[in-house]
Amino acid sequence: MGLSNILALLSGVALFLFGMSLMGDGLKRVAGNKLEIILYRLSGTTLKGVLLGTGVTAVIQSSSATSVMAVGFVNSELMNLNQAVAVIQGSLLGTSITGWVVCLSALEGSGWVSILSTATITAVVAIVGIILRMFSKSASSKHVGDILMGFAVLMFGMMYMSSAVAPLRDNAAFIKILTSFSNPLLGVLAGAAFTAILQSASAAVGILQALSFTGVITFATAFPLILGIAVGASIPVLISSLGANADGRRAAWSYLFIEAISAAVIGGLFYAFNAAKHFGIMSLTMTTFSIALLNTVFRAIGTVTFAPFTDRLCDLLRRIIKPSPGEQAMTADFDRLEERFLDHPALAVEQCRLTVNAMAEKTHENLTDSFMLLWNYSDAGYDKVEQVENAIDSYEDKLGTYLMKVTACDLTKSQTEDISKYLHTINDFERMSDHAMNIAECARTKAEKNMEFSPAGNAELNVLISAVAEVINLALNAFLYNDVGTAYRVEPLESVVDNLCDEIKLHHIQRLKDGKCTYEHGLVFNDLLTNFERLSDHCSNVALALIELQSDTFDAHEYINNLTVQHTTAFDGYFSEYSKKYKV
C-alpha cells in the first residue's frame, strides 16, 4: 500500500467523519430544540426512554451525542437517572442505523439498476443539497441542504476509503494483521482503542465496512471488532461527565457498563458455544450488509436484555459511584425541604431558613475562591468554582419551588416576612455565584495567555477587590444574622464601589493611551470591573430586602431615591468612612 493509498484512505476517513457530523448537525437544526424537549419530557418509562433514545440517535447519527444530552439533563435535574439510562440504552441501538446508510455505497449494477448506484445517488443528493444551500432563502431549507450535503460527503468518503483499501486484498501483511484480530481479546482491544481515538462508533463501523471491500474480513475478525467498537464508544460520554454531579457520572458510566457487560456476556456465550459446536459462520466473508446486520443484532440483543433490569442497574451504579462530600452536604440541605413540613408552617419556614443560609454561605465561599484564582490560578480551583456554581443553581430551583408552596400555607406576619425575604434574595445569591464563575473565567483567560496587568492596574484592582469583599461580607452577614444595622452600611459602600469602578476605568483608558496596557489586557480588566460592580449591586439588593421588610415597604426605588434625605447623617458618615478606606 503506497503513500497515495494511505493519503486517499485518510482523506476518505476525514470526509466520512465530516459528512456524518454535517448531516447530524443539519438534522438537529431542522428539529431545533425539539429533540432535547422530547428527550426529557417523554422519557417517563423505561420503554419510552429506550424508544426515544433509539429514535433521536437514528436522527442525529450519534449515540454519544444522545448520551451526552442525557447526562446533561441528569446533571441539570431535568431527568432522573433511571430515565437517562433508558435513553442511553436506546441510543446504543439507534447508532446502528448509520451502518445501514453506509450500505448504500455497495449498490452497483448496469442498466436501470445503475440509477440506484452509489455514484448516481450521491451525485443527485449533492446537487439538490448545494442548490438548497446556496439559493434557498428559507433557513429550514438551508438546513435540509446541509443534511443532503452531509450525506453526499459521507458517501464520497466511503467511496474514497473503499477504493483506497482495495489493493489490500492481496497484501499478505494486511491479511495477517486482520487474521490476528480473530483472536477475541486482540479484536476487542483493537476495536475499543480504534473507536476511542475516533470517538465515534458509527465511524468505526463505517470504516470496518469499507475494509470489507477487500474481501478479507471474515466473521471471526468482524465479531470481536464490533464488540470492541461498542466498548470504545463510551469514552466521549465518560469525558462529558467530568465535573458532573453524582447522577450525571452514573448516567455516563451506565454507557460503559451496558456495552462492556453486553460484550462480555454475548461474546462469552458465543465463543463458548463455538468451542463446542465449531460454527461454520466463522469463515464467512463479511460484506457491508452483513457487518451492518451483525452490529444491529448485537446492539438489539444488549438493549432488549438490559431494558428490564434498568432499575437494578441504577441501584448498582448508586452503590458504586458515591457523591462527593459537597454533594452529600447539598443533598442533606435539600432533604430539609420535606413536603410533610408544609402542614406545620413554623417547621417549614425554619427549614427554609437553614437551607437559604447554606446557599448564602456557599455563595460567599465561591466568591472568595474566585477572587483567589486571579492571583493563584489552578484548574482544580476553577473546577471547584464551577461545581459550586452548579450547586447554587440547584439551590435556587429547589428553594424557589418549595418557598412558593410555603406561601400557600397559613402563615403569621413574621413568617410571611421571612418567606418574602428568602424569595427576594435567592435570585441575588444565584446571580452572585454566576459572577463568581465569570471572574473565574477571567482568571483562566489571564493564566492561559500569561497576562500580567500593569503595577498600577494591579494596585487598583486590589483596592477594588478589598472593597467588594467587604460589601459582600456586610450583605451576607446582615442576611444571616438579620442585622438591619449592618444592612444600612451596604448601600454607602456600594456607592463607593461604583465610584471606584468609574475612576479605575478612566485610569485604565489613560494607560491604554500611554501604551502601558494592551487592548487584550483591557478586555479582561473591563470584564472584571463589570462583574465587581454588579456583585455590589446584588449585595445592595440583599440589604434592601432586609430594610424594606423592617419598614413594611417593598419600594426599593423609593428607598434609594430618598436615602440621602432619610438617613443623611448615617449615609454620609458611612460613605465618607469607606471613601477614605478605599481610594485609588
What are the main properties of this structure?
584 residues; mainly alpha; Methane Monooxygenase Hydroxylase, Chain G, domain 1; 3 domains; 79% helix; 0% strand; elongated
Description:
- The chain has 584 residues and is mainly alpha-helical.
- It folds into three domains: 3-320, no CATH class; 323-436, Methane Monooxygenase Hydroxylase, Chain G, domain 1; 451-584, Up-down Bundle (Methane Monooxygenase Hydroxylase, Chain G, domain 1).
- The protein is built from 26 helices and no strands.
- The termini are far apart.
- 44% of the residues are buried.
- Mean pLDDT is 82; it is low at 110-114.
Fraction of residues in helices? over 70%
- Sketch the major β-sheet: none
List the domain count as a whole number: 3
Q: Helix- and strand-based class? A: mainly alpha
Quaternary structure? single chain
C-alpha termini separation = 71 Å
Please tell me how large the radius of gyration is.
Answer: 31 Å
Poorly predicted ranges (pLDDT <50, ≥5 residues)?
110-114
Beta-strand residue percentage:
under 5%
Q: What average pLDDT do the residues reach?
A: 82
